[in-house]
Amino acid sequence: MSEVRFTDQHEWVRLDGDVATIGITKYAAEQLGDVVYVELPETGRKVGAGGEAAVVESVKAASEVYAPVGGEVTASNPALSEDPAKVNADPEGEGWFFKLKLADKGEFAKLMTADRYAEFVKGL
Amino acid sequence: MTMNNQGRPSAVGTSENHELPTISGDRGLDHEEPLIFEIGRDGMTGVDLPDVQMSETRLGGMRRRKPIGLPGLSEPEVIRHYVRLSRMNYAIDAGLYPLGSCTMKHNPRLNEKVARLPGFGDLHPLAPQSTVQGALELIGELMMWLTTLTGMPAVAMSPKAGAHGELCGLLSIRAAIAARGEVRKRILVPASAHGTNPATAAFAGFVIDEVKGTADGRVDMVELEGKLGPDVAAIMLTNPNTCGLFERDIRHMADATHKAGAYFYCDGANFNAIAGRVRPGDLGIDAMHINLHKTFSTPHGGGGPGAGPVVLSAALAPFAPLPLLVRDSRGFRLIEDRDELPARAKPFGRMCAFHGQMGMFVRALAYMLSHGRDGVRQASEDAVLSANYILASLKDVMSAPYGNGPCMHEALFDDSFLEGSGVTTLDFAKAMIDEGYHPMTMYFPLVVHGAMLIEPTESESKESLDRFIHVLRELALEAIAKNTVRFDGAPRYAPRRRLDETAAARKPVLRWKRKDLPQAAE
Amino acid sequence: MRYHPLTPDDRLTMLERIGVTNVDALFRDVPQSAVVPLSAFDLPDGQGELEVERALSRMASKSVAAGAGPFFCGAGAYRHHVPAAVDHLIQRSEFLTSYTPYQPEIAQGTLQYMFEFQTQVALLTGMEVANASLYDGSTATAEAVLMAQRITKRPKAILSGGLHPHYSETVETMAELSGQVVRAKATPGKPDDVIALIDDETACVVVQSPDVFGLIRDLKPIAAAAHARGALLIAVVTEIVSLGLLEAPGLQDADIVAAEGQSIGNGLNFGGPYVGLFATREKFLRQVPGRLTGETVDAAGKRGYVLTLSTREQHIRREKATSNICTNSGLCCLAFTIHLSLLGEEGLTRLARLNHAAACALADKLDKVKGAQVITPTFFNEFTLKLSKPAANVVEALAKKGIIAGVPVSRLMPHDPAVRDLLIVAATETNTDEDADAFAKGLAKVLS
Questions:
Q1: Are strands B263-267 and B232-238 parallel, antiparallel or unpaired?
Q2: C148 and C216 assigned to the same domain
Q3: Which of B196, B386, C135, C248 has its CA 20 to 30 A from that of B333?
Q4: Which pLDDT score is estimated for B10?
């Protein structure tokens, strides 16, 4: 059973074994507006927790996406380069950004649960 | 009598059929216009040139084998095409253009005329210097005006635009710091800065450290002083700032900066508010670029070309880039190489080929000679007066975040007056288009929510300002009354309705391609 | 003042509405000690149009215009005939006095010609995409090097010795901030060996063709060598008319083309403003500096154009922008587009042939002069002469006879004694047979 956690930078992480799938939250996708381009990390790249891993662009803004947990990139979502609108249509599903082989499970445990993230967003 | 029913009817008729689609797709003076690639055809040309015989022995086997694919058009077709395109543009010649921080002022036609004199326009940059003395004299004269107006000892003329000038200024600072044997990496930039400031600083290899603003729209001196230290290379400040306000503490800032061993870079984009009244050199500034296309009215030309000479303090002057202009007993002379430098000169490099934007120099000097020192001062005063007139006339209906005190040459409003109206800053701006105006600068500076920055310049008559104020008041009142009909989907009466920028960015189509050919780029 | 519409009465009424008694009150945030009186400026007062025109005409008359006599300067700026229609059209108010097209609904004129320009540049260079122009050829070259450093994540740029020295210096100034620039030694009249300098640190090789001495280079083997080591080839063109006759750099496997577009539509203007052309492969699109115009539709479904991919640019990306550039060379880019539209395929081809034929005829004439020898075996409209005397002296002597003979290489490379006797000579469609004869005759006299 996979578990999903969230960051205060509006990324989500789903953990399956030691593989973390990462994307941006529904809230973030709504705030950005229509996503026009996503720049994803290449496979094999090592990123630290909190490091810049991807860039997501709308017409008027470009935002960095940080790796919520550290590890080695094992895949990035090929569908996004063809159809970046997937980020708006299904941000927490088909619109995932990249997958990491998790280096330290402790980092995952420190992230927000869905309930806490919902509280957090409400307070913004 | 006989009734003559023939000929032209005199009644104006009704306007009911306004929305009737036309057969042609054009509407009166509004013509749709295809791309030249869709008009042209093979074999046609608008320039008559002889078809000469030539041997190929000197092309080294590198002759082109395939056609380029350029369309052929006759001269009348080309003229009609570009005249029709021109009519889809707004222009300062056609109406008030209140773009804050862009300075859309009148472009005198005399300046166009003199820039085309063969003695300026038809000179090669590498012609023998003895044959281009008049051009060098013009550059020297313009340098004299720029240094006198700014109270600075030196000026680098080659930068080709404001951002290029910023880079030139920062590279001078970098060189000066290196010459002192120091390493300083940080540049302090206020949050309200033009986007170019951090972009240029990063480009020049510096780390950007943002300084917050105060509630009255100025730099927070406490934070600035807290951040100054031995690793700070410079502060970069726009003055008057992007909120349209003069930085009252500017001298204090300069002192603190210099005390920390750093340099003071001023973005001169707004020099037009103070020219002829305040000399940046007196404020302790070390480097400032001057957008000749703003303050000195060289035409914006749909986005260029500009020119961005940089005035430099005595501390930075030795590091100015090549070429240098000197005057000796034989006349003016360009120094283009390190081998022949005057004493103390340590140029950091070269910004571009040749000597700068000569065509812009001629126009700017014509502007200066026409205005004179009195006219330059009057221009600044009228620009500031007009902006304050707009601020005073609108601040009761549109919210002005810093409306308590006078502004400089631009009046800043935010979108709090639109709150709950369903109208956004963008809608408001687009409704202005239907009223025959170019919108003001929107969403800049970033420190204000939904910013609207209005710069009327000195070129508007009082009648023009009053009419503009009337239209904005009425629009604001309608928005506040939640009467959104003018705003929904505006503009309606422009050559185009709102354009789909998302589609343009998702699947970029950046060039025309022949439909019958496979898409070469894919 | 003729440019200021406000009357003294207007000003008083306006001050009254603002609620102050004089304009000084509006400047109250300026420290009083920083306000200077008019007399502090040692400058003249304003003048009428007649006086200004007279003063500037007098200044202009102190120079010898290129059109005043036989004229053969090139080396990065070329004298061509610009049709009268070009200058007429670019002076239309709606082009001349508009701003950057940030409001696309009322700037379709600018946006559409920029789209046409991008297409023309892509076609001409044989590349897939082009931007809406940069400042000039030298800054476009520097931007190309920076882009190659970003793409390859490697530091080193190798510059051919045939690259215009001003371009090399501009690249060094810009690209040494983040990387390393290596210049190959100049070999006038012969191809230099840039391939030998390519290593695994190399981001790009920068090769100009025709090079600064006029020599036409074959880019294909250089591209192959660069690509084999994971580096890019940047092709530089300073005489864009040459592409009317020569193989496009894109068809010789260049990855980026940086060019000076002055020759089409724009006068000499003593070095500026000019127009930088920048074209590349579609796969590098996100790394392209400068403005881009794209096609889209409006709310009513009509085709239109907008500035696009602007998240690369400084006003949004700030310190993460691909470049700090915020302008293109608008009006010069328009002049280029109009002139090239007038020329079309047929006109450009004829113009290029005419230039080449003029240069060949001139080279033959000058090569016969005792003490002069053409050292560039291949060329387009520009070649290098080796003289029996220092070229700078020869140019000065001929200038006194009203002949502007060309650009001495020593002006561009003063520290290199080996080039002292070399002269770069260009011929275009503006040169007549009589010009060429006068040059040959004058040169013979000066060299004897």
A1: parallel
A2: yes
A3: C135
A4: 52
Assembly ipTM:
0.97
Q: Do B51 and C353 touch (CB under 8 A)?
A: yes
Model confidence over B388-404: pLDDT tens digits? 999 999 999 999 999 88
Quick one: pLDDT band at residue B520, thresholds 50, 70, 90?
very low
Of C313, C339, C365, the residue at which a domain comes to its end is C339
Closest chain B CA to residue C302: B496
Q: Are B429 and B479 in contact (CB under 8 A)?
A: no
Instruction: Please indicate, yes or no, whether residues C283 and C420 belong to a single structural domain of this protein.
Output: no
Q: Which amino acid is at B444?
A: F
Gyration radius of chain A over CA positions = 13
Determine, for residues B502 and A36 on separate chains, whether the beta-carbon distance falls below 8 Å.
Answer: yes
Query: What is the spatial distance between Cα C368 and Cα C280, in angstroms, rounded to a whole number?
Result: 43
DSSP C91-138: TSHHHHT---S-SGGGBHHHHHHHHHHHHHHHHHHT-SEE-S-BS-HH
* C309/C400 same-domain check: no
What pairs with residue A35 in β-bridges? A58
Cβ proximity of B249 and B220 under 8 Å: no
Using the Cβ of B497 and the Cβ atoms of chain C, whether some distance falls under 8 Å is answered with: yes
Please write the tens of the pLDDT for every residue from B269-278.
999 999 999 9
Does the pLDDT at position B339 exceed 60? yes
Given C339, C358, C388, which residue is the final one in a domain?
A: C339
* Record: contact A62-C286, CB cut-off 8 A: no
- Chain A: residue whose CA lies nearest to C307: A59
pLDDT at B133 over 90: yes
User: Quick check: A37 and B502 CB within 8 A?
Assistant: no
Instruction: Walk me through the domains of chain A, giving residue ranges and CATH numbers.
Output: 3-112 (2.40.50.100)
Identify which of B175, B151, B154 has the alpha carbon closest to the alpha carbon of residue B275. B151
Report the alpha-carbon distance of residue C335 to residue C264 in Å, rounded: 8
Domains of chain B (ranges, CATH numbers): 111-366 (3.40.640.10), 375-494 (3.90.1150.10)
> What digits encode the pLDDT tens for the residues A54-65?
989 887 778 889
Residue B519 has pLDDT above 80, yes or no: no
* Domain boundaries, position C236: 84-339
- Same domain membership, residue C263 and residue C191: yes
Output the pLDDT for position B232.
98
Domains: count for chain C: 2
Say whether pLDDT at B482 is over 50: yes
Which residue among C59, C318, C396 places its CB closest to the CB of B198? Answer: C318
Helix then strand then coil, in percent of chain B rounded to 5, is 35, 10, 50
- Yes or no, beta carbons of C286 and A39 under 8 Å apart: yes
Check residue B18 and give its pLDDT. Answer: 57
Residue from the list B371, B385, B439 with its beta carbon closest to the beta carbon of C23: B385
Q: Are residues C128 and C173 in the same domain?
A: yes
By the CB < 8 Å criterion, does C286 face chain A? yes
Test mutation, A34, A36, A59, chain C, max C CBs within 10 A: A59
Is the CB of residue B505 less than 8 Å away from at least one CB of chain A? yes
The rounded percent of chain B whose pLDDT value lies above 70 is 95
Q: Chain C neighbours among B 146-175 (CB < 8 Å)? A: 148-149, 151, 160-164, 166-167, 171
Q: What is the pLDDT of residue C314?
A: 60
Is any Cβ of chain A less than 8 angstroms from the Cβ of C353?
no
The segments of chain C whose pLDDT lies below 70 read 313-322, 326
Q: Quote the pLDDT of residue A62.
A: 81
In a domain, C328, yes or no: yes
**Of the partner residues B196, B278, B498, the one whose CB lies closest to the CB of residue C34:** B278
Reported as half-sphere exposure (CB side, CA atoms, 13 A), residue B504 has a value of 27
- The CATH number given to whatever domain includes residue C189 is 3.40.640.10
| Residue B23 touches chain A, beta carbons under 8 Å | no
